[in-house]
Queue: 3 jobs
Job 1
Amino acid sequence: MPMVALIHGGAADAFPDRIAAFRVGLSETGYVEGKNVLVEYHWLEGNFDRLPAVLGDLIRRRVAVIATPGSTAASIAAKASTTTIPIVFGVSEDPVALGLVASLARPGGNATGNNFFVSEIDAKRLGLMHELLPKARRFAVLLNPGDRIASASTSKALVAAAPMLGLEVFFFNASTPAEIDMPSLLLRVNGQMLFSSRPKGFLPVAQSSLPRSQPAIGYLRVFLLAKWPKPASS
């Protein structure tokens, strides 16, 4: 039975919809997990240092396909690790610029996928926050240093865009829940939030420590809060 390996930078409990959609996609092509195809899930939870070991094991076992939806770092690492195993990627930047494909019209090689235009609109998201909060001048950006490619792209875009809008941006790194200190971060910046490169465990930590009225923006709803924590009843 063929084995499909899925590698994602986040945590399984934060993306149940992705798992469901992946299984639907398999079924639409005639594959049913557990019946005529096996799926092995690798959730990195922000620990991108695990990629070499994970990919090395998958390549040694000669899996049929490596899927890297929603992870630029995993997509690039997979492409660098094998020229024979098919790779289906989902990345936040131009896949040609990342070296994943030769061109959009004729990808060539062993990789194909899509670009969901995240990095390209980082500056636009900052502009939207400015429109919503015209009096705010200082914005905090939360990055995951483990995802170096996405963090570098976001930082570059926002550093270039902020002066044109008359804003200041301050970058903070966090890869684990223990490193996310929302109250301290907000106190140091005295400004608003703009989330990117979501660290693992961000959702539960933010839900317990982020003020209910604190504005924030991200490219996926799950990266923020479906509902802000309710205030304690009196």
Job 2
Amino acid sequence: MKETKIKGVYKQKNQLFTKNPLYLKRKKVYNEKIIKRDDSEYRSWNPHRSKLSALILKNTEFEIKPDFNILYLGAATGTTVSHISDILVEGTVFAVENSAVSMKKLLKVCEKRKNIIPIFEDAFHTDRYQAIVPLVDFVYQDISQRNQSQIFIENASRFLKENMKAILMVKARSIDVSLKPKDAYERVCSDLKKTGFKIKNVVNLAPYERDHAAIIIKN
């Protein structure tokens, strides 16, 4: 088990892992595999269920530190959120989700973990949770909506600290089914550049996710 460039993320062969907190020994989130090494437990991180895991496996350069505060938009049922929670041993993840069905499952994850703040809200309406979320070190968005670039711009402009990075996961078909995936990604990049964000990299997530790309952004 070897630690990757991201502290708290480990790799064995072509599989990623994060370390389960001591107070959650033998606890799984989504039936992932747990490997024991000495006094530690490592949870397998499935790249076919987590776009962030896929991005890391593609050797993309970005940084998440253990003391970061992260705003996660589109938290769903908490698969990726739980692994970020493992990484943030001194930080907090603010998890925004607007589906009642997904939030019900996310809350079960949050009940066991001390560093996740669940927010049941539409991520487009930042004014509804601005009293809860402080300035953050990182914004991560995985929302499959046509206006996902506008959602990102609204949140990053309000909550992301100056000169910090963010990741926007883009599903091409959610932007415009008539566009080629590459053109859909370019449209989102154009929206971001118009509002002053800098595009550091655009990474196609194949073969883990079809017609998806991760856009690495700096404000």
Job 3
Amino acid sequence: MEGNDTAKVRAIKILGNRSLSGAELKKRLINKGESEETAQITVDWLCEMGLIDDAQYARSIIRHYIGKNYGMARVKDELFKRGIPREMWDDALAELNDTDVDDAAYRFFESKLKGSVEQTDIKRATNALLRRGFSYEEAGIAKKRFLENYEYGSLGIDNEEQ
């Protein structure tokens, strides 16, 4: 039982620094010298105590990466890397609005272009969206929205200057 108490104290110290998924904490405990069994018992105990909530953590990761203008592929990759069970992130992703992702894509696209409508700049910005985990469809929506805003002058550019 003493080993479990040591693992519990160690786990609480680790969680004091930042939130982790159950899988991440288990891995960290094993790296610190705990047995796999002790690490799993400790993670289960922390879940029962409500100190680890993978579903809440998944929602937090999603909000963080969408807020930083990353696409769904990148968000899903982060959830996978953090060991969050698939059914939990599916539920968390279902809570996300399509407009949140579209807005993130648009914000990033617009920041890359800085008002330019040169074809090479648009292509470069579109490729950057794809590298950040946005789909072709999401990149197309961001591009279309940007060009519509440009056309209607909301970018501060006169249509007569074109």
